[in-house]
Structure formats: structure tokens, C-alpha cells
Design a protein that fits this description.
- 2 copies of one chain form a homodimer.
- By secondary structure, chain A is an alpha+beta fold.
- Chain A folds into 2 domains: 129 residues, Jelly Rolls (Sandwich), CATH 2.60.120.10; 47 residues.
- Chain A has 9 helices and 8 strands.
- In chain A, a hairpin with a 5-residue loop joins strand 4 and strand 5.
- The first copy, chain A, is elongated and about 55 Å long.
- The termini of chain A are far apart.
- Chain A binds a DNA duplex through helix 9.
Chain lengths: 191, 191
DNA sequence: TAGATACATTTACATATGTTAATGTAACTA
DNA sequence: TAGTTACATTAACATATGTAAATGTATCTA
């Protein structure tokens, strides 16, 4: 539980009282490699704190084409955030790429506490703002940069990712095919 | 001021008291077509409520290439949100594409009120969450869809946009060149 | 060790998109 | 009205990326 406390406090500090109220709603959970934290099509109910492991969030369209939205590398929060917010079924699935250790909580229960704990509401705001900043960054990259530049940026952000996840997931994160990623890697090696 | 009140209440209702406190920080502002609400490179200080008019937010990279992140069609909020959050100079400029009527407020002053008014903090959370949802949607479109599909989606979302803004801004919103947009339009007309 | 499995790379060709420059078109202006 | 300005379209060619299939390369397993 200390890891969660430390992680949260870096985003927005909570009073001891608030954290105690929060604490009781979190339960331990373990995922084996390949397990889903959440499947596409269901309404998200849980938010998770990923203590260790790697999870990928991905979108699968009607043609069977996948887009890997994000890699979560613990410690961080996981969960189908947009589904939690909208109460609609999630279009984005989240799957463990390695064995994972988590703490999970029912999001509705957390939300209820917003009324009683102003500092928790602030945490909620800070988290939403943080997520917005991340999304905006990636949006700019996708709109403005070629895949090879996006690849370089990704390697700076997650230097180890290629040794953890298969190359076709990396390609899908970049919005390209494994073939094209192969070409880019080759090109960058030569340069 | 009523328009602002109505707009905000749809996102998250405020008490009369909170809204009164808020109200005093907003001042009227008019922008002529072509004016900048905020220039790239400066620290954003103001958040604006766009009563009427169209503003575009865009990113300009070192090569002089532009990416139009967003069209704001009033009534809605404008402002370099990421710069307001991070207190760093904005990389994203915002420019009036038509004459605009706004109410503007100093963001720091608003932020101060977060401490005193829980419902304002909630509004801040709801706005951040709303922005996140929009960004995530666009991210998926950019990662998964061809430009012609993105064009069709954009037309559904802003049916009038092409009659308001020049075509090269639309192209830049889609992450393509005017040339390519011209081809897509032609293709879609034939089909 | 031989085969199977899972993934990565390469090849050949097709399509989407970019670049540059020419041409078209409408609205404004002297 | 003729020229100018601002923008859109088109043309010709180059590059980035996709698709499908073959090949390469580890690692696992019987």
C-alpha cells in the first residue's frame, strides 16, 4: 500500500484521513502474462494501481486492425479511464504483457468519496489533467511526425520497451505495420 | 455572463455563491479575424469563454509545418490548456478565424479559488476529463484511420467548418496536405 | 537433435501521401 | 475592366506505408 501512497502523493498529496478511507477500497490482484485487466465491450468498474509489470491498452476495429494506444509500465495507474468516466462499454481492452501485481478498487466507490474529501477531488483533477497532457503530446506526434520520428521518441520514453514486448505491438503503438517498423529500424541502423 | 453560466452548468453545476466569485474574474474581450488569442512561446495566463466565433489551435514545428490541433466553435472554452496546467510556454498558438466575442479570466486567480470552492474543483476535474475524452478520440482516429475516413468524421462533427475556414486549415487538422485533401474530396464526390 | 512455434525480416508490388510547380477560380482593388 | 490577391485544384513525380507471401531466426518441446 505504501507504493500507492507514494505514487499518489507525487501527483497530489492526500491527508492521512483521506488516504485511510481510500485504502480500504483497494484489494490486491495478480495477472499472469496474457490475462486481460479489461475486455473490450464491457463497462469498466475498476481502477488499478500497477505495482509491477507491463500492460498494453489497445483498440481493435471492425477490420481486425489493432491500434496500441499505450504501454503502462508500473508503477502507474491502469484502467479503462474513458469507460469509467462515461459509464459506457469500453472500446479499449487492457492486457498484461508480463506477469503483473496490482491493487484494484471499485471506481464508483472512489467517486462517492469525491463528495466528502476535497483533496481526493483535487487528485482526480490532477490525474485527468496529467492524462490530458499525455494525450495531447501523442496527438501532436501522430499529426505532425513521420513514423521514424515517432519511433525515436518512443525509444527515448521507453528505452526498454523493445526488450519487453513483441515488435508488432510496438508497431501498432506507432500506428504502422511490423513491416514498416522493420524498414525503419534498418534505416536507422545504417544512418 | 448568462451564456457562461449555462455552459458551465451543463458540465458541472456551481452554487450561486461560487459562480458569483467566478464572475468577477471574467472580463469581456473581442478579437478580430486573424488576431491571436495566444501566441506560441509565451506562458498562457488566461482562459477564455468563446461566446461566438471560431478559433483554431495549431502547432508549428521547426520545419514550418503546421498541425491544426483543434477548431473551437463557440460557445466553448478556449485557452492554451496545457500551458496553463504546466506553467510552461505554450507550443500551441490560438488564432481567431472569424471575429470573436469572449469573456476572459486570469487562470491563476481561478486556480486560487479551487481551495475555497469544492464545486469549482469538481468543475475543473470535469473539464479535464472532458478534454481527455476528446483527445483520446482523436488519437484513435489518427492512429487507426486513413485521412479519408478522418475527413468524413470531421464533416459529421463540424458540418459547417468547410464554409468557415480555408481548406488548408482543414487539411492541417487532418494531418495531411491541401493537395491530398483535394484528392480525397474528388474521390468522395465520385463515389 | 528434429520439428514446431512464435516472432522478425525481407521481397515485390500496390496504395496513400508528400512535394513542387502549374493552372484554375473567385473576390477584391486600382 | 484589368490586375492582384488568396485560395483550390491538378499534374508529375518522389517517398512513406500497406499487403501478402516467402524467408530467416531464435526458443521451446518431444
Amino acid at each position: 500500500m505504501k507504493e500507492l501512497f507514494d505514487y499518489i502523493n507525487k501527483i497530489s498529496p492526500l491527508s492521512a484521513e483521506t488516504f485511510t478511507a481510500l485504502q480500504t477500497t483497494f484489494q490486491p490482484l495478480e495477472l499472469a502474462k496474457g490475462d486481460f485487466f479489461i475486455q473490450s465491450g464491457v463497462c469498466a468498474q475498476q481502477i488499478g494501481f500497477l505495482k509491477s509489470g507491463v500492460v498494453r491498452a489497445f483498440f481493435l476495429n471492425q477490420d481486425g486492425k489493432e491500434y496500441t494506444k499505450q504501454f503502462f509500465v508500473g508503477p502507474c495507474l491502469v484502467g479503462a479511464y474513458s469507460s469509467l468516466l462515461t459509464k459506457q462499454p469500453t472500446k479499449i481492452a487492457q492486457q498484461a504483457l508480463t506477469d503483473c501485481v496490482l491493487l484494484v478498487a471499485n471506481y464508483k466507490q472512489l467517486e462517492k468519496n469525491y463528495d466528502n474529501y476535497h483533496d481526493l477531488e483535487r487528485l482526480g483533477r490532477k490525474i485527468a489533467e496529467k492524462y490530458f497532457l499525455e494525450k495531447e503530446q501523442k496527438e501532436i506526434e501522430m499529426g505532425l511526425l513521420d513514423a521514424d520520428k515517432r519511433y525515436i521518441i518512443m525509444k527515448e520514453k521507453f528505452p526498454a520497451i523493445e526488450s519487453i514486448v513483441p515488435q508488432y505491438y510496438v508497431a501498432s503503438y506507432l500506428g504502422i505495420t511490423p513491416t514498416q517498423l522493420s524498414r525503419i529500424r534498418k534505416k536507422l541502423k545504417i544512418i
